[in-house]
Amino acid sequence: MMTEHAKTAALVKGMVDAVKIPVTAKMRLGWDDDNITAPDLARALEDAGVAAIFVHGRTREQGFSGTVNLAGIRKVVAAVKRIPVIGNGDVTTPESAKLMFDETGCAGVSVGRGAFYNPWIFAQTRHLLATGELQPEPRFEERIRVMCRHLDLMVDVFTEVHGCRMFRKVAPWYSKRFGPVNEFNKKVVAISSRAEFHDVLERYLRWRQQFCDGDGQLLPRYAPPPMVASFMQDPASAQRSSIPVPRGPVEVW
Ligand SMILES: Cc1cc2nc3c(=O)[nH]c(=O)nc-3n(C[C@H](O)[C@H](O)[C@H](O)COP(=O)(O)O)c2cc1C
Prior knowledge:
Blueprint: H1 5-18, E1 24-30, H2 38-48, E2 52-59, H3 70-79, E3 85-88, H4 94-104, E4 108-110, H5 113-117, H6 121-131, H7 140-158, H8 160-175, H9 182-188, H10 194-208, H11 235-240
Helix pairs in contact: 1-2, 2-3, 4-6, 7-8, 9-10
The site of flavin mononucleotide has 13 residues, from helix 5.
């Protein structure tokens, strides 16, 4: 679709004409570095009637490797006449959201994987943009409180059995920011009930004490390194620390 603009625009126009709600389009920058087609496609889709464009600042060839290209997103912003362009890719901190706004002129930023690890990123970003002040990372207790609430809500929506099974993959996103976490991750991926989850959690909290000071605070040498967006690092370390994605080619996710 990113290389056949006339057909893509016709398809999208059919959709726009068929429904009463706004239709938005999500794209990458292009097929590969030699085919950065997003600006032209965005313009064609604006003419086809889409209400907004979301753009992940990587090419299809890049997959999830390498750095998000802010200059590429800026070109998409410049290409459209009226509709908002929302930038996307590797926003893992409030500072990186702000940089994406500042460098690209985009109307919004969308956060995917960064929100898995840091569901507070939306409130923190809004605060940074409004006040210029960077809030401290949430305390461990707050992370635990929100993780438990997340499980409660999943149980409400999906029932206890399915909610707990699905939560097996959610809990390790939270635990990525807990410090030493081996014991927790090994056990939480086998929970089948809320009671089992709380049992795993209580055991983990006792185990974690060995890494804490007398006040129960994690000793600095065990603290996880700060998260830094790929486009705020040098390219070599960006490659090493890229946020994990599911195994296998993007096509089969
Ligand atoms: C597990 C997973 C599933 C995704 N599914 C979709 C999808 O269905 N549609 C889509 O447009 N993008 C999808 N994406 C891409 C994200 O929307 C986003 O463009 C990409 O992850 C880069 O943003 P991020 O670094 O904030 O995660 C998916 C990404 C992941 C990791």
